[in-house]
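Example protein as discussed:

>
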Amino acid sequence: MTQLGTLLTVSTIVLTILLFIIVIIYITRLYVTIFYDNHHQENVLEITITFWKFISIQKTIPLNIQAVNDEEKDIEPNMTDTFFQFVRKKINSLRDLIAAVPYVRQLLKQFSIHKLKWDTSIGNQDAMLTGLICGAVWGVKGSVIGLMGQQMNLLSTPYINVTPQYNKNNGVKSSLECMISFKVGKTIHTFIRLLRFMKRRKSKRNKH
């Protein structure tokens, strides 16, 4: 009886600790800060993950964006079937995405945006072209911010700016700083529901 009682006590303690850890993980809010900048010679992406307000993990990722010309090949007559298979696959992916919209919305609702700063400068020798591009970029940014406001929780007013650099061939330079947060447990649960839905869609499509 003594050994059995000791075993039960140890088991109870272990289960209690595990339950406590699961509850802590479920209610923990994770803060993710994303910083991107391409004003210098190379693109830099910096991600900082913070939880419990005093534990922070930071990762800097240099991005070398290069055009991949080798993948651009003409479609030969004997590759027609492959091309149509590719198109059919993309159409199925689009259908899956449209069908998953309610789940994606539920997932996005788990995210809160604490800070969003998006600054862009555009320079070209042609002043008229610079103005047109700036107007288009303003439109894109406004649409993105509007969509984020509808689908996510905006906790502060986003700062967006587009600066035209007339008669300067500087190209497009942009910097983005964004802080988001989410509860780990709820987000994982919603993400698993999304994955299960996509898996069911794929299995159903494979049967037909």
Observations:
- Residues 67-79 have pLDDT under 50 and may be disordered.
- The beta strands are 29-37, 43-51, 55-63, 112-124, 153-154, 159-166, 171-183.
- The two ends are 60 Å apart (CA to CA).
